[in-house]
Structure formats: structure tokens, C-alpha cells
Design brief:
heterodimer; A: about 270 residues; ABC transporter involved in vitamin B12 uptake, BtuC; about 0% strand; B: about 250 residues; six-stranded mixed sheet; three-stranded antiparallel sheet; Metal ABC transporter permease (chain A); transmembrane helix (chain A)
Chain lengths: ~270, ~250
């Protein structure tokens, strides 16, 4: 297997994408779990499908369309939620389905043969292009910079945002920024595990990490390392048995979580 | 000397009236207890004073140089959040505005350590907050509020889920804090509160202020809307005379 990694370009690309994706799921995953934004993230991911469809229709890189829709969904859900009395759960549901519906319509309108969407829905780490990797690097850098440079604020915001408000810190700004970061993170992960499986990669590594530490920083780092292990392990298994990589990564992660919860669960305070 | 003045404040949530024409002056050095039934608007009043809730009418006037700090209810955050005691207290050292690459200074950490020492919680410095008892966690929240270096400390039901011993400990702590800081707390725990506070206000949409801690039975009954038997638990002294049998229903 090592020989193949050295030989084949697409395997090297897959390895790099695994690492880039894992950094994102370590950082953002930990945040969305602590802030209870898992469903929100699922909603953003599915809405981005509309953008991918639009990308095909307009003949631009589909993932750029996806990125646009993901950001619009994140901002849309929050601002509509603030202005109306519809609760965010219901809004997430609407965005979720409307995004998918738009995607299907846009693709139907696209002239010529319909494109193969499986790689967007279920991910294909072996098919990540050079441009895809460059985009992932840029998004990783943005996410990393914003989280690291405002680390103390994030920690305080996630723990008790009301207290930050009392201190006179603009919580709304942090809130919107966080949603944009989630949107960026999802776009990074779509290439690896796909829209439908994104939530698993965002939630499983931090949940496993939570068995071993309750330090916020260590949680992020450990979740990142776990993500890398899961992705590479999943990649190798899927390559060996010729099964879909995204799904394999998720199953590997879930098995580790299961083992972790059996042996380690309950050792730390919930 | 009045640090904060609440002027004719009303708050409506849709059709529900939470506060109705409330007037209140918070005087420097006071230890004010605001009591009232659940849903009586206690928390709303605190949030209006803190600027978290905008009043539908009326206003809150703060004297220049007044820094208000806040001890929330436990339910406002997750106790399972991965954060250490020291980091919780350091939150109080964050200043207005957002600075990139903000790091807590040596002075901030010394201040936090000093407060922990004073509140006798230094031994929990590196514990995750989920590993603390209710009384210990309450002290951590008070420490965080003090790290802001406020002149007014607002507390929302600080003893709601504590046992009698921890309650007494918290009240005694607040009493000593009150030497330098104005303390305002809301509670439905009428008995214990009245043996510590200097003045009392009763709230149930409207507010009835009593300068002294001696509560009249009428004002309590007006607040709660029914006759009430007042007993100070945990202490030998009874705050109010006992409510007679077969009282006016």
C-alpha cells in the first residue's frame, strides 16, 4: 500500500485531502458539538446541493456554487430566525429540503447528459483534483486563522455568550462569523465524504476525543488526529476492497466510536 | 447615591406583560433582594438592567463609571462544556470589543488567582466545571463576575439549587463582597434572603420597593396574590410573624 501511495498521484492527493479535511472536522466539529449546531450543519450541507446544481447549470465549478449556497444558508437561517417566530429547527428543515429541490431542478435544466452526482452526495476522496486541494488549503487557512486568532473569544462565546454580551462584546458578529466558518468547513468536507455523510465526519472524531479529554484545545487537536486516522484507514480499506471511500471512512469512525464508548464511555463527566 | 435608575420600565413579550411600569433606584452600597413568584419578571428585570433585554417603554439610566457584572442561573450554560475553572474566571477579564490574537496578560491571571484565593476555590483552578458541586460552581461564577471589577453585582437565583449549608456560605460570601460592591439579587427564597439583605423589593409584573428588610405581610401577599406563610429556614430567627390559621383567603 505504501508503494502505491508513493506511486500514484491520486493517492497522494487523497492523503492530503484527508489531512486537510481532518483539520476542519477537528476544529469545527468540536465547536458544533458544544454549541449544539449539528442539525444546523446538516441543513447547511444539504442546502449547498442547490449551489452545486446551479454550478452545473451555469457551467462554473460546482463546488464554488456549493460554497455560495452554504454561506447563504448559514446567514439565511440565522437572520430569518432572529426576525420571525419560526424556530430554527423548522427553518433548518426548510432550507435542507429546498436546497436539495433546487439542486435537482437546476441539474434537470442543465443541457446534455445529467452529470454524475454521487461524488458530491457521498464523497470521493480518490477523485479530489489539484484545484480541489488548493481550495481546501485556502479554506483551511481561513478557518484556522479565525479560530486561532480569536480563540479566547470563541471559548467564552461557546460557553456563555450572554456573559460576553454583558461585557459589551459583539456576540452577533461572532455568531455570524461562526456560521460562515461552518459553511466553509462543510465545503471542504463535501469532496471527501459528501453532503449526506458530512455530519458524521463533523461529529464522530470530536465525540471520540471527548472520551479522553475535557480541555477544549486538546479536544480540537485530538479530534483532528483521530479524523486523520479515520480518513486514512477508511481510504486504505476502501482501496483494498474497492468500496466507496466516503462511506468506508464513516463506518470506520463509527466502529471506533462504538469501541470507545464501550471501553471508555462514562469515565469523564458528561 | 444612586448608581442605576430604572425609570417606568415595561416589557412585553408579544401579548404577555412581563414588567409593568417598574421604577427602581439602586443605591451605592446597597444589598437589594428582589423577590417574587416564578414568572413574576425577576429575571426580565435583571436583563433589562444588564441591557440584554430592551424595554418596550421606559429606560434604564446608569451613572457614569458604573460597571455592572452578572452571575447567571446555572441553566444558562452547559455544565458539560470543556472549560477549566481558571478559564471561566478569566472570561471576566475580557474587555469591550474584539481584538485579534488576544491573550490574557500576567496581570489578568494574577487577578483571577487572587479572587480564587479570596473565595477559597484555588484548589479547583484546573478542574473542569462539570466536576464541581453546585456550591463550588456558584463560587466560580461569582469569581468570574468579580474579575470584571464591578461596582454592582447582579445575581439571578444564586442559591436556587443549593443545599442549606452552601446557601449560607454563598450568602455570607455576598455579605462580605457587599463591603465594596453593591449587590442585587433576585430570588424566590424569601426566608433566607431577608436575614442578609439591606433592602427588599417585591416583584410580580409591578414592583413594590421596601427600603428596610422588614417585609410587611400585605406587600408579600400582594406580590404572590395569596396569603403566604413565611418561615426562615436554616436559621433560628423567624422573619415575619406567623400567618394565622383561617386567614383571609
Amino acid at each position: 500500500m505504501i508503494k502505491e501511495f508513493l506511486e500514484y498521484n491520486f493517492l497522494q492527493n487523497a492523503l492530503i485531502s484527508a489531512i486537510l479535511a481532518s483539520i476542519v472536522c477537528g476544529i469545527i466539529g468540536t465547536i458544533i458539538i458544544e454549541k449544539r449546531l449539528v442539525m444546523m450543519s446538516g441543513g447547511i450541507a444539504h442546502t449547498s446541493f442547490g449551489g452545486i446544481g446551479l454550478g452545473y447549470l451555469l457551467g462554473i465549478e460546482p463546488i464554488i456554487g456549493g460554497l455560495l449556497f452554504a454561506i447563504l444558508a448559514a446567514l439565511g437561517i440565522t437572520s430569518i430566525n432572529k426576525k420571525t417566530r419560526t424556530n430554527s429547527d423548522a427553518l433548518i428543515g426548510m432550507f435542507w429540503a429546498v436546497g436539495m429541490a433546487l439542486g435537482i431542478i437546476f441539474i434537470a435544466l442543465t443541457p446534455g447528459y445529467p452529470p454524475d452526482l454521487t461524488s458530491y452526495l457521498f464523497g470521493d476522496i480518490l477523485a479530489v483534483s489539484k484545484i480541489g486541494i488548493k481550495l481546501m488549503i485556502v479554506l483551511d487557512l481561513i478557518i484556522g486563522f479565525i479560530i486561532v486568532s480569536l480563540y479566547n473569544y470563541w471559548k467564552a462565546f461557546l460557553f456563555d455568550e450572554e456573559f460576553l454580551k454583558v461585557l459589551g462584546i459583539k456576540v452577533t458578529l461572532l455568531e455570524y462569523l461562526l456560521f460562515i466558518l461552518i459553511a466553509l468547513a462543510i465545503v471542504v468536507l463535501i469532496k471527501v465524504v459528501g453532503i449526506i455523510l458530512v455530519i458524521a465526519l463533523l461529529t464522530i472524531p470530536p465525540s471520540v476525543a471527548k472520551f479522553y479529554t475535557y480541555d477544549f484545545k486538546k479536544l480540537m487537536i485530538l479530534a483532528t488526529l483521530l479524523g486523520i486516522v479515520f480518513c486514512i484507514l477508511g481510504l486504505i480499506i476502501s482501496y483494498q476492497f474497492n468500496i466507496p471511500s466516503g462511506a468506508t471512512i464513516i463506518i470506520v469512525s463509527a466502529i471506533v466510536y462504538l469501541l470507545g464508548s464501550l471501553f471508555k464511555g462514562g469515565n469523564l463527566v458528561k | 447615591m444612586c448608581q442605576v435608575e430604572v425609570k417606568n420600565v415595561s416589557v412585553h413579550y408579544g401579548n404577555v406583560c412581563a414588567l409593568n411600569g417598574v421604577n427602581l433606584k439602586i443605591k451605592k452600597g446597597d444589598f437589594l433582594g428582589i423577590i417574587g413568584p416564578n414568572g413574576g419578571g425577576k429575571t426580565t428585570l435583571l436583563k433589562v438592567i444588564l441591557g440584554l433585554t430592551k424595554p418596550s417603554s421606559g429606560k434604564v439610566i446608569k451613572k457614569n463609571g458604573t460597571t455592572i457584572s452578572y452571575v447567571p442561573q446555572f441553566s444558562s450554560f452547559s455544565r458539560g462544556f470543556p472549560i477549566k475553572v481558571l478559564d471561566v474566571i478569566l472570561m471576566g477579564r475580557l474587555k469591550k470589543g474584539i481584538n485579534f490574537f488576544h491573550r490574557y496578560s500576567k496581570e489578568d491571571i494574577e487577578k483571577a488567582d487572587y479572587i480564587m484565593e479570596k473565595l477559597q476555590i484555588s484548589k479547583f483552578r484546573d478542574r473542569q466545571i462539570g466536576q464541581l458541586s453546585g456550591g463550588q460552581l456558584q463560587k466560580v461564577l461569582i469569581a468570574r463576575a468579580l474579575a470584571v471589577e464591578p461596582n454592582i453585582l447582579l445575581l439571578d437565583e444564586p442559591t436556587a439549587s443549593l443545599d442549606t449549608n452552601s446557601k449560607t456560605e454563598i450568602y455570607q460570601l455576598l455579605k462580605s463582597i457587599n463591603k465594596d460592591v453593591t449587590v442585587v439579587l433576585v430570588s424566590h427564597d424569601i426566608g433566607t434572603i431577608s436575614s442578609y439583605v439591606k433592602s427588599i423589593a417585591c416583584i410580580n409584573q409591578s414592583l413594590f420597593y421596601h427600603g428596610k428588610t422588614e417585609l410587611s405581610r400585605e406587600s408579600i401577599e400582594k406580590t404572590y396574590g395569596c396569603p403566604i406563610d413565611l418561615v426562615a429556614h436554616g436559621f433560628p430567627h423567624r422573619v415575619l410573624r406567623k400567618h394565622e390559621e383561617n386567614g383571609n383567603d
